[in-house]
Design a protein that fits this description.
single chain; alpha+beta; 434 Repressor (Amino-terminal Domain); two-stranded antiparallel ribbon; 7 helices
């Protein structure tokens, strides 16, 4: 076996060391250039058991497991932003006495995104809507009507025309 630092044949016992973040097998002479690498002793992992809550001495109650929400569950609940969501966000922020910078840092977003949402240049994602509603304690979205047709459904594609999509401006 060759030393990975000097390239000479390793005589005796090889050492495992860390030199500048790299794990190397080196000879006794080159081992002084790095920190010795101690191999951690691994213990077999125990199988996970359900958490138990003890209510009284003799009674045992199993804690119910909550099912994590899947993407389908989140997407099946469709929401629409309120027409005046930009005004609601701005008013709530000003009433709380927060600047754009303070609000952005509280919800862990960039200041430019907050400004774009307040001016209506950008519509927020559902995650951002939830963050804003929680921080500002407002409601800026409402469930969409189940009667309205979903975009991409067979009925809406059958009757959708180019005129429905394009907004034509007439010259005076």
């Amino acid at each position: 076996m060759l030393c990975e630092v000097c390239g000479q044949k390793i005589i005796g016992k090889a050492k495992k060391v860390i030199i500048e973040g790299a794990n190397l097998i080196v000879c006794q002479n080159c081992a002084k250039f790095g920190d010795s690498l101690k191999t951690p002793t691994t213990q077999p992992q125990k199988p996970k058991t359900p958490k138990i809550i003890r209510a009284q001495k003799n009674s045992v109650i199993k804690k119910p497991k909550t099912k994590p929400r899947s993407k389908d569950d989140v997407l099946s609940t469709s929401y629409e932003l309120a027409d005046n969501y930009t005004e609601k966000i701005r008013k709530a922020r000003e009433e709380k006495g927060l600047s754009h910078e303070e609000l952005a840092s509280r919800i862990n977003e960039r200041v430019s995104i907050i400004k774009k949402i307040e001016t209506g240049k950008m519509s927020p994602s559902q995650i951002l809507v939830r963050k804003l509603e929680k921080e500002l304690q407002i409601n800026i979205h409402a469930p969409s009507d189940s009667k309205s047709e979903a975009v991409g459904s067979k009925d809406s594609l059958k009757e959708l025309t180019l005129g429905d999509v394009v907004n034509i401006k007439k010259k005076k």
